[in-house]
Each structure stands twice: as structure tokens, then as C-alpha cells.
Here is the input.
Amino acid sequence: MPHYFFDINDHDLSHRDDEGSKWPNRDAARAHAMRILADIARDEARRHDRLHLFVTIRDERRTVLAIASLAIACTWLD
Here is the structure.
């Protein structure tokens, strides 16, 4: 089973995944990265008017395979 690493970056946090985890395929790794983004956004969006999150997916050779991102913003119009 392939081993993937999920590095997280947002406004307050930069975390390099040094342990990684096994996922059956790229689609499962992508889904995991998207869940990470949703979980962080759920907590962090309460404290920020703008939030831009990234999860970088690396393989066992530490090669970057994909970058998942999520941007959330609230702008008052008055």
C-alpha cells in the first residue's frame, strides 16, 4: 500500500508530516487531504475573516504529488 505524507500550511500553522500514512491509492490520499482541509477550516474560520489553507501530498520519496487548497473569506459590504 502506498505511503503518503500530508504537509499542512495556513495562517498560523505550518506542519511537515514526517510520519505519513498508508492509503490504498491516490484517490484515497486526495480524499484524506480534503478531509484535513475541512477539519482545519471548521476550527480556524471562526477566528479569521480570510483563510487560505494548503495540504501538500508527498510520496515515499518525498516528491510532491499534489496540492489541495481551500480559501474562505467573509467581507462586510458596509
